[in-house]
Amino acid sequence: MNKETNKLIPEFRFPEFKNDKEWKKKQLSEILDYERPDNYIVKDINYIKTGTPVLTANKGFVLGYTNEDFGIYNNLPVIIFDDFTVDSKYVDFPFKVKSSAIKILKTKENDNLKFIYESITELKFNLVEHKRYYISEYQKLFVHVPEPTEQLKIADCLSSLDEVITAHTNKLKALKTYKKGFIQNLFPKDGESVPKLRFKEFEKYGEWEYLNGNKLFDTISNKKHDSDLPILAITQEQGAIPRNLINYNVVVTEKSIESYKVIEIGDFIISLRSFQGGIEYSNYKGICSPAYIILRKKNKYSENEFYKNYFKTDLYIRNLNKNLEGLRDGKMVSYSQFSEIKIPNPNPKEQQKIANTLSSLDDLIKEQVDKIEQLKLHKKGLMRGLFPKVKV
User: Fold this and answer.
1) How many CA atoms lie within 13 A of 341 on its CB side?
2) Which end of the chain is more exposed for a tag (fewer CB within 10 A), N or C?
């Protein structure tokens, strides 16, 4: 590797900066000031649907909204930083926060905050214990910066791409909202026996049949399994999914795995603790903790996708969570409770029609998710070129 390639110069450089000098290595403490969030913490955590957003720096970001008209942060833009997880978010709108663990970061001089934010998203930092990190360790990390004019150019370029990603993310939210509203009308409401929206060809069948859960689903407790089967995590976003496909680091001992249950493709899984997500669906064969209840359809003509969507309706979730049995650290759902709930069992052809309609919406949603993922990968690749490669 020659001296030229060791220089702090990015692979992609805008023409007007081609002959500029190398980037500088600077410690974050030289670039950023921090402020404690004490004056901006929300008092009432019973959030509402509109108002001032209440933020966290981690994946949730917007926790909800408040109508509190005091302690609103307005000196924008800023980076909010979670002192325990080292997650961060760039914020350019007024907000309040929930936690005192947040640090509010701003640049000290002429550095571009958006550029610095993009720089710290690329930093590698290992969390080894639950503690506050910013003052003791994180602000001592180094980033590489050009002159402010080049920072601004890079920040504007990445911001333009962020706007495209945001537009597609909003479209994804709209599709999910539309599907949720559509589902509520394709299944009967409480006290009703036919849905508000019904396909014309099925009106002649009259009212839907309702049966107790145990008439439609068996509970499965098969524990004889091959060692090659993947261990499945039960998630709200992706249903039952192999743990190695997601960031799931729960350690399972060889002895405990003997008690794990086998899940077949098409099975439904009840989380014993209802707050973990209710009933999920599996597209994978694998094994899961004995803490879960496995449901398998009795009628081969009934439609998986029909029940996959029905179990996510507000009405069914409310019914499932009624009169929960006590558990020392929470509440749980039992198979006997599931069995007592009346579940719709319309004509299989009508089930299939509803399932196909909702599956077509799922295809649009998946297409949108993939598009967003591709844009994020494009941004990541672009950043590798716009920032110098540093030999570690």
Assistant:
1) 22
2) C
